[in-house]
Amino acid sequence: MQYLLQPVHQPEVSALLKRAVEPEYGPTLTVTTADGVRALAYAEIEYLECTHHIVHFHLTTGEDVASLSLRVPFSAVAQPLLADGRFVQPHRSYVVNLEAVQLLAPGEVRMRSGARIPIPRGREAVVREAFCARVRRNNIMVKKIRMKVVFAAFAGVMFFGGVAFSPNKSQAAKKVSITKSVKVYEGKTAKIKLSNNKKKVTWSVIKGNSLLSLTNESKKGVTVKAYDAGTAKVRAKIGSKKYVCTVTIKVAPDANAKKGILTSDNLKYWGVKDSGAVVIPEGVKEIGNDVFAYSEISSVKLPKTLGK
């Protein structure tokens, strides 16, 4: 139980109400890192990614916490999270927090940070069922919690005869945050912003070094210049804390692509293969005559937009 002493300030009440809609004591997971042992609350973990025997805990704040090299299977690390009910494993190398999922798309899970997690075809039904079940549970819990919060707030006002709020700037200090995702075309630049920071920052590319470069590094952000299509990650390190932005580099559309025309010159932009099983994406309205003239195609899947 927590009490507020008069005079009561708005940030204190906001923090108390926010706490009221979460468990009194949330579960945590201990992680051994190069800096020491970290205790990560389940609620702040967005997703886990296991690469080269190292587990990366991607947090909702944008921070990337890397474990030391594993001596146990990834399944052993993920087991307590999966047992909690709010996590699901869509891929053998990933575990995601269902609370942080923004969209379930064909073949992938899209997180609120912009990260995209692959789903093998055989796992799509399991992931969809877990996501829908979590949404139904949350809807029920929110209704119950709102009733409790409203009742508690009303009782407090009746008991104290009303409360006057006054601003308190020292208690309203904002946390450091980073642009979680950026999209940019090849050959173009984009800005990654670091908000509410006044300390020294070390910027680095931790994934996709060959895809982009960094310029104009400062305490408030950095500029990325894109070279090749793909996905890269840029990290801002402030002391022991790390903040990560996912940069998605796309092929710039040519004149034909802007009109919805698929040609042999813009196959990369549309993401279309020139042989085997070919899938024409939505948005293509016309296919040039020379696109598959010299290709060996086994099958073609056409979009609804073609011919409209």
Explained architecture:
This protein is α+β, with helices and mostly antiparallel strands and 308 residues long. Helices cover 22% and strands 36% of the residues. It is built from 5 helices and 22 strands. It has helices at 10-20, 74-84, 124-160, 255-258, 267-270, and strands spanning 28-33, 36-41, 45-51, 54-59, 64-66, 87-91, 94-97, 101-105, 108-111, 116-118, 177-178, 181-185, 189-195, 202-207, 212-215, 221-226, 230-238, 241-250, 261-262, 276-279, 286-287, 297-301. It has a 5-stranded antiparallel β-sheet with strand order 5-4-3-7-6, sandwiched between helices. Strands 11-13-16-15 form a 4-stranded antiparallel β-sheet, with no helix packed on it. Strand 9 (108-111) and strand 10 form a beta hairpin. The mean pLDDT is 84.
